[in-house]
Design goal:
- The radius of gyration is 24 Å and the shape is elongated.
- The protein contains four helices and no strands.
- It is mainly α.
- The termini are far apart.
Amino acid sequence: MAALGSPLRTLRGLLRELRYVSAQAGRPYRDTAAYRHLREAFRAHRVTSEKLCRAQHELHFQAATYLCLLRSVREHLALHQEYHAKGERSTEEAAGLVGLKLPQQPGGKGWDP
């Protein structure tokens, strides 16, 4: 299992993704039920004097997994819009998408334009 990092870093990442989604909806992210739930869940599972807090570790693991899902879906949609939503493309446009340039037709003696 990969290291989870800090719970605060995970919470900040979740809130960042929530801001992206709320910005598209046109309302503040602090007015959403998801924000209230995250805030309450992370406050309820703060570090205590216990040596092993299974509930806190489980919450952090689920939050990190959900953060990965949200980030991946957002990036997938951005890539999908960039590369798929254009319809038919010319050969030059398709070559430009992958960083290639088509060779120029040499003009000169013996070549028809």
